[in-house]
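Progress note, sequence design subtask.
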């Protein structure tokens, strides 16, 4: 069954959603969308380093994404604006990665595949990386759910309860770096932020509790992945962007449903 490229692509999208659903919910709650984009942009530098050093692509992107997370946290602790730090690091790393790739000897690189993803080219090894990373992140969030949620809703109350909000924030930051690393080939550096934000934002329109929002975000991610792949097959469109378009349509539909719910009845 895994010899069918469409089956592998569907499994990759479903596996990725297991991580982006819960993590994207925290990204929405904490307003970390810009950080997700910046980490994904910096992953291109990881691709360049992996090619130059003959390392697996996911390993290079993971190292750079983790370095980005630590650097931004350090800059924030020094009192520098997080948005400014993210902007400097993001565009510098992206540009450095694009320049460095040109120095990779004898390597022909399809930059579009790294920028927009190539989910139809996912291999069995890629599937193993995606699912291992996604299940690890989902398990981590499940394990620390109450700590992460309390730190997000009320850092002062979390601190009074003996929870270190900064440490929980670092857990989310490092988790985001891992998700970027394992998803680069699936949806690409420019679209991973959308995969994190849109399903979670759509779920927020109708979910009544934080846990329900997480579960619904995962389900929306699954629906977007599968319907986007089908749309790509039927209309011969790029698979990665098609998945994001499907997620956007789901968001639009749930926004309309939420608006209809709030409309007063005469």
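Output:
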């Amino acid at each position: 069954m895994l010899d069918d490229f469409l089956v592998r692509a569907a499994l990759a999208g479903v596996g990725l959603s297991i991580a982006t659903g819960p993590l994207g919910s925290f990204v929405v709650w904490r307003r970390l969308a810009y950080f997700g984009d910046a980490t994904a942009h910096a992953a291109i530098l990881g691709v360049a380093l992996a090619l130059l050093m003959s390392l697996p692509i996911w390993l290079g992107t993971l190292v750079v994404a983790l370095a980005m997370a630590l650097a931004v946290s350090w800059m924030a602790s020094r009192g520098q604006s997080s948005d400014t730090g993210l902007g400097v690091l993001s565009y510098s790393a992206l540009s450095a990665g694009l320049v460095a790739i040109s120095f990779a000897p004898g390597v022909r690189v399809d930059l579009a595949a790294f920028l927009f993803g190539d989910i139809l080219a996912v291999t069995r090894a890629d599937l193993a990386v995606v699912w291992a990373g996604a299940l690890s992140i989902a398990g981590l969030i499940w394990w620390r759910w109450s700590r992460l949620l309390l730190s997000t809703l009320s850092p002062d109350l979390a601190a009074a309860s003996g929870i270190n909000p900064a440490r929980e924030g670092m857990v989310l930051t490092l988790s985001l770096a891992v998700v970027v690393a394992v998803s680069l080939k699936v949806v690409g550096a420019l679209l991973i932020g959308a995969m994190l934000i849109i399903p979670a934002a759509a779920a927020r329109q109708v979910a009544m509790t934080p846990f329900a929002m997480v579960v619904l975000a995962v389900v929306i991610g699954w629906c977007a992945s599968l319907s986007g792949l089908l749309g790509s097959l039927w209309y011969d469109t790029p698979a990665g962007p098609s998945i994001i378009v499907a997620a956007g349509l789901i968001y639009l539909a749930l926004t309309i449903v939420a608006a209809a719910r709030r409309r007063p009845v005469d």
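The radius of gyration is 19 Å. Work on this subtask will continue into the next period as scheduled.
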